[in-house]
Structures
1.
Amino acid sequence: MKIKFTKQSLRDIEGVYHYIQQQADKEIALEVVHKIKKGIDNLDKHPNLGSKLNGKNRRLVIAGLPFVVVYKINKDIIYILTIFHTSKKIV
């Protein structure tokens, strides 16, 4: 399956990088982003890896990190919708 990032998800991952870079350093920020992307890459072969949220949306918890990826599957494309820290309150 092909994986496509929405503009929102790209902003989210950029925000994760910048926040961690400011709080820690560049290497840690790169490592966290790499782990998030690695988790997303797993969806290529295992698209139903994440649990169902609502409708076509699914939630993937990134192993070892407090981040969640929300995505949907449409035919043969996985759309990454958003990426957020688990401490963020979702309404």
2.
Amino acid sequence: MHGICRGPPAVDDLEVVARRLVQISHYVEQDQDSRIHVEKVKRIFLFGDNGSATEWLAGIEFAIQCGWFSIDKSGVYLKITTEGAELFDVPK
């Protein structure tokens, strides 16, 4: 892990939200570069899991801070890192 991961107090359990986002990302179709479109994950979390926008943002930030996701400069694509894949024994 990359140090202590802390998030804003607005979300009760950031780690649970962040882990769910990594789990969702595992099932979302990736492009040829193993990138995952952020909006696909967001849609499932907000509408399938009935998550809130606050939880979404805090969870993504937490997962990135913990090293579970990397995000491109544009903020459009995520990649599950080795650390993120290890959360669920998912091949990277």
3.
Amino acid sequence: MKTLTVLRGGIFFPLSAAIAGQPVAAPEGWSHVSPREEVAPKFSFDPTGGPDRTGSFDIASDQREGLIGHWKRTFPIKGGGVLPLQNPAQGN
């Protein structure tokens, strides 16, 4: 199984559901997207994941080829300025 982890730092996420072993919903505003359900990988959010343990967005594939999808969120921005972006993603 291959996993790509996209990290989200600086926000505390409730851990009660994760401790109980139940799936944890992604933070507000985040969703996962795939062109069709049959080519969607498995999406999950781990509130204790990432190098600083503040949460990670996970995408896991299985034995099927051609799986495609991504996490999505819209951020408001003000035009005319500079927007610094960082992508601390790492694949295993």
4.
Amino acid sequence: MQLMASHAEFRRQQTPLARNFYTEGMEHCEYVEQRNGGFYVAGTRVSLDSIVYSFKAGDSPETIRQNFSSLSLEQVYGAIAFYLAHEGECRRQYPRR
């Protein structure tokens, strides 16, 4: 129970998604958060851009999970789902390389 309380406290301390050009109209997502001008897997230092780059290069979620050992498979799938649901907004954030 203490672990749950600590996680809940951590989540309360996090700033909500900023209402700006990139997140306007996006619903809250427990897997991705916006901070420092970019999108990140929530609670980690892994950028959404790095997950998307691997996914678009043909890596499976399982391979991406192996390459980012700090992430769970659920977080990888959540990040990919967020990207696919908000592809247009994310493209504006991360223009083609």
